[in-house]
Amino acid sequence: MIALVWCPFPDRDSARQAAGIMLDEGLIACANLIDAMESHFVWDGQRACSQEIGVLIKTSDDRLEQAIERLGALHPYDTPAIAGWCCDATHPATEGWLGSFGAKH
């Protein structure tokens, strides 16, 4: 089954670095870096706003927990916002591509 992970990063360089390491380690099949999103949040009881880079990661369900754990270790934030989930439905071509990724690693 296909799994996705969502995580914002403070900048493109740190997002690229984490994605590259996780690709090299075989934990993920793909990472999409989404430019300049504006994040509004509450941190330490205060409202805040910052520019971040969104990262959507594609992996397999059997690597999901390991990918989340590794992403947390690589992330520059002390408390990164990382969410992962298994996909109930995917296009057959996507399933085939990510299925072959799972078989190779």
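Above is the first protein from milestone M3; the second protein from the same milestone is given next.
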Amino acid sequence: MKILRKIGLFLFAAAFFYAGITHFLYDHGFARMLPAWVPLKLEIVYITGITEWLLSLLLLFPQTRRAAGIATAAFLVIVLPANIYAAINGVPAPWSEEASQTALWIRPLFQPLLIWWVLVVSKDSKPT
């Protein structure tokens, strides 16, 4: 694996793991990002946080890296509607009480870059 790809892999995995931690630190803020009709909001927030932990760890192992990369890309597509909902409805970041409309739209617009990133860094699943 090329050194830049490996660095990118570890940066992505660390950031994704930290994102999972934030689901527990700011659980009610993440729950606000879901429409009123969605049941079990906190449970969904906790499940997505745990999922981020598991996927980030699976990205680190060559044997599971490719599958974890694809699963992470799919996960990012699945959670995209919550980010779009938050942007449309002015729901601030989970750790904040206010945000500009521009800041709210950065997150969903950044999602395709994250998907591309994880697919690129998880492509090589050969042991190093």
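Note on the second protein: The mean pLDDT is 92.
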